[in-house]
Amino acid sequence: MAGDFLSFKEKGSVLNRIYPLVKMIWVLLIAVGLFLFKTPFSGGVMFVLILTLSMAGGKISPKEILRSALIVFGLGFLLMIFHFFFDPGEVVWSWYFLTITDYGLIQGPIFFFRLSVIVLSSFLLIWTTDTRDLMTSFIKAGMPYRYAYTIFLAMRFLPLIQKEVDAVQSAHAIRGRASGSGLSHRFKLWQRYVFTILINGIRKAEITADALECRAFGYKKQRTCVKDVTFRKRDLVLPILTLLILAGLIYMEHIRWIDIFGL
Amino acid sequence: MALFTIFNVAVLVVLGLIARFTDKNITEKKEGGYTTQNLVIIAVLAAIAGVINTGVGNLWYLVNTSLGPLGGALIQGMFMWAYILAVFIVRRPGVALIFGLIEAGTEVLLGNAAGIGTLGWGISQGLAIEAVLLICTYSRFGFVTAVMAGMAASQFGTLWTSVFYGWDPSYSKDVWMAAPINLISGAIFSGALGYFLATKIAKTGLVRSAKK
């Protein structure tokens, strides 16, 4: 399970106040935009912008960003290296069987920025959005609440599953050696853990379903929310601004970047 | 990419037809919407699978980004066992796709290293299982169908991987060479494992939903 560094933080920031569904659409917009970029420069610009927005608009400290840096940048970096060596093109450097191509040198950074920006913006969504608010905004957008509740329930069950894992581990520990054993023994233990957790999880699900139906869950088509989220027109500023930036960058790719950098 | 997409769709159809004509475990197709119990079971399984897959995902990303499609193919099949399990417990049309979306959504919120891109795998893998089950008219739930669905999901998921990571099938031979490994990986780690878990859970008699 992800550590505390990847959980919702209410900091009263600008991004905290933006309507959750708008933020979700904003992340999807960025992802689509990144797929359309053909040069690393546009990805680089977006990377700097999202990083600045995280700190200024989301009040996410550089320390928090650094703690997730391995996930955000590490895999993107590996992907970049892979593209350096395995993409076709004219060889610009070689050493024994390893060769770097000119096409790989352009594609590598494109994929580094694509992965890093998509992951960073997704993390920004997690840092600044309460899951409950996100589900409420889905319902308000017309999603049947029984389905939205399913997503919320999945998140609600996460800490319970973690507790279940701890309980099963402890139960095994008092009956024998649970740690410090060999790899095959550990594998057998994990088999037992997973099976027990699955059985207990499904049984809990059945009991929860019974309890929900006893309270007439799903009887009415509409449902009220304890904590409401309200959409304001100014929330649209973020996706509209992003859309303009993305369009501008795509335009620059076709017209300017090529001339400026001779691509 | 177009050729690779056609290839993947063809693989789906072939696997679906194999399941349709060889699986003798025929049950009555369930009609109607989802009950609350169905939805809660999907949610719980998605939460459990989300936690496990986020961990396995980190290993997969490491292998996939450093070794390419061939490295990723080795453990590509390790993500869909829960899809098969959910499908074999709930047994209704659309379960795999809904499960895929919720499980992938859980992974996104847990901090999956692909961010919102994870939804692409949830959708593609869920759709692949749905396609196999649709060909089987949602009435075959035996070992063969489970294995074929696992193989289909494992291979079809690579379509999104190719788009997301830029493995262009027009020049990357690895993407094509990885196909048989993906299929085997999906058959063992998703199909067979998911079916094994579903039958073991049913045998315990502790779970009402698993009693068929």
List the quaternary state of the chains.
heterodimer
The largest interface is: A-B, 62 and 56 residues
Helical run tally of chain B: 8
Strand content of chain B: under 5%
Q: What is the typical, i.e. mean, pLDDT of chain A?
A: 85
- Strand element count of chain A: 2
Q: The biggest beta sheet of chain A, please?
A: 2 strands, antiparallel
Report the order of strands and helices of chain B: HHHHHHHH
Rg on CA atoms of chain A, Å: 24 Å
Terminal residue distance of chain A: 43 Å
Structural class of chain A: mainly alpha
- Element-level helix/strand string of chain A: HHHHHEEHHHHH
Form type of chain A: flat
Q: Say what the CATH topology of chain B is.
A: Arp2/3 complex 21 kDa subunit ARPC3
Produce the secondary structure layout.
The complex is a heterodimer of chains A (263) and B (212).
Chain A: H1 14-17, H2 20-36, H3 40-56, H4 62-67, H5 69-86, E1 91-95, E2 98-101, H6 102-128, H7 131-140, H8 145-173, H9 183-214, H10 237-261
Antiparallel strand pairs in A: 1-2
Helix pairs in contact in A: 2-6, 2-10, 3-6, 3-10, 5-6, 7-8, 8-9
Chain B: H1 2-22, H2 36-67, H3 69-76, H4 81-90, H5 95-110, H6 118-135, H7 143-165, H8 173-204
Protein architecture, described:
- The complex is a heterodimer of chains A (263) and B (212).
- With 263 residues, chain A is mainly α.
- Chain A is built from ten helices and two strands.
- In chain A, helix 2 packs parallel to helix 10 and helix 8 crosses helix 9.
- Chain A starts with 13 loop residues before the first helix and ends with a helix.
- The model of chain A has no long low-confidence stretch (mean pLDDT 85).
- Chain B has 212 residues and is an all-alpha fold.
- The termini of chain B are far apart.
- The mean pLDDT of chain B is 89.
- The chains are: A mainly alpha (263), B mainly alpha (212).
- Chains A and B meet through helix 2, helix 5, helix 6, helix 8 and helix 9 of A and helix 2, helix 5 and helix 8 of B.
